[in-house]
Amino acid sequence: MSDYLVKALAFDGNIRAYAVDTTEMISEAQRRQETWPTASAALGRAMTASTMMATMLKGDSNKLTVKIEGGGPIGAIIVDANAKGETRGYVSNPKVHFDLNRHGKLDVARAVGTNGHLSVVKDLGMRENFTGQVPLVSGELGEDFTYYFVSSEQIPSAVAVGVLVNPDNSILASGGFVIQVMPGAQEEMITFIEKRLENIDPVSKMIESGDSPEQLLYNVLGEENVKILSTSPVSFSCSCSRERFADAIISLGEAEILDMIDEDGKADANCHFCNESYHYTKEDLESFAEEARKEKNG
Ligand code: ZN
User: Fold this and answer.
1) Which domains does the chain show, CATH number per domain?
2) What are the residues whose beta carbon lies below 5 Å from ligand 1 (ion)?
3) pTM to 2 decimals?
4) What DSSP assignment string belongs to the chain?
């Protein structure tokens, strides 16, 4: 079954909730980048949380970039996600894996590191982008996104994200949910939800056992309290293309392109996000140099 996301309200609109199955999305990221299990879990958690965050944006053309740098061995995690459910992401060092931590889980905090920041840049189609940044509080990422919502957006939230990996490094299950408390919520509701959160299985386990995104929210909030508003597909999607990389080469300027022709007689570009490679011949570069000259003079 394909990945999808649900948006819901609960307790008469006092709670906003999102849940998503990202098993296919993270499987594709893992295959393309050949990430090892701990790196897959870090990337998958970040992509899952970012996917939900992006669908909170209003307007289809709005998008955001999440950057997590914790000083750990995987380096930076970069995720682009938009309001249409299209997400791409990568880690600087995909070949990172450690033994399970003391909770028997993939040791994401060790791979990410705990000394750094999570930053979010939202492109809402206005002149200035919105930027928010918080220090990492755990490196496990679910808690870090929770802290981001509370601290940077002043929305009390609970974020749960999880990834399970097969022995052959492929992805077994991935997904998550976000529960947000609106200003009118009463103390009893919050206490009820907190108790449920303490007693449910990890979100990756629920998805592995076959729970749908709707069911994840029923597990947390109680089915009788939840009103599903919408469901929409989500997927791994990269916007790179041969033309886009060509434009990037042209923007280097004529002199630089002529140097490339002299030194290599060709150019190769590789997309960090989807790992596609684009090859440009000497003739391609000569026409790019020509275009760069025209752009400068025009
Ligand atoms: Zn790409």
Assistant:
1) 4-236 (3.55.30.10), 242-297 (3.90.1280.10)
2) 238, 240, 271, 273-274
3) 0.94
4) ---EEEEEEETTTTEEEEEEE-HHHHHHHHHHHT--HHHHHHHHHHHHHHHHHHHTSSSTT-EEEEEEE-SSTT-EEEEEEETTSEEEEEES---------TTSS--HHHHH-SSSEEEEEEE-SSSS-EEEEEE-SSSSSHHHHHHHHHHHS---EEEEEEEEE-TTS-EEEEEEEEEEE-TT--HHHHHHHHHHHHHSPPHHHHHHTT--HHHHHHHHH-GGGEEEEEEEE-EE-----HHHHHHHHHTT-HHHHHHHHHHTSSEEEE-TTT--EEEE-HHHHHHHHHHHHHHHH-
